[in-house]
Specification:
By secondary structure, the chain is mainly α. The chain has a domain at about 30-75. It has one helix at about 30-80. The protein starts with about 30 loop residues before the first helix and ends in a 15-residue tail after the last helix. Pfam families: HSBP1. One of its GO terms (molecular function) is transcription corepressor activity. One of its GO terms (biological process) is cellular heat acclimation. One of its GO terms (cellular component) is nucleus. InterPro entries: HS1-bd.
């Protein structure tokens, strides 16, 4: 039976995968289950953290867009109605 190892180094601190050998080889179905559960837990934690960061950045961007819209509206209100430029008199060419 071949042994499975993670593709990327993972911290196995406190996980059931340390029960096998010191190099992290998985040699039983129970160790494989524990390893998969550990990886899924870590992925879930990382996903939650990244989701929180993305949502926080979206909230910040929304606040900035709202502020920009407010500033533009203030500029439009203070500028008043746009008056048309007077037409420049053209002399007819002869």
């Amino acid at each position: 039976m071949s042994t499975l190892q993670p593709a990327a180094p993972l911290s196995t601190k406190g996980s059931a995968t340390k029960k096998s050998s010191d190099n992290g080889d998985i040699s039983s179905p129970h160790e494989l289950t524990a390893f998969v559960e550990d990886v899924l837990t870590k992925l879930d934690t990382k996903f939650d953290a990244m989701s929180s960061v993305v949502l926080e950045k979206m909230d910040e961007m929304s606040d900035r867009v709202d502020s920009l819209e407010h500033s533009i509206q203030e500029l439009v209100n203070t500028a008043g109605p746009a008056s048309p430029k007077p037409a420049s008199p053209r002399s007819p060419r002869v």
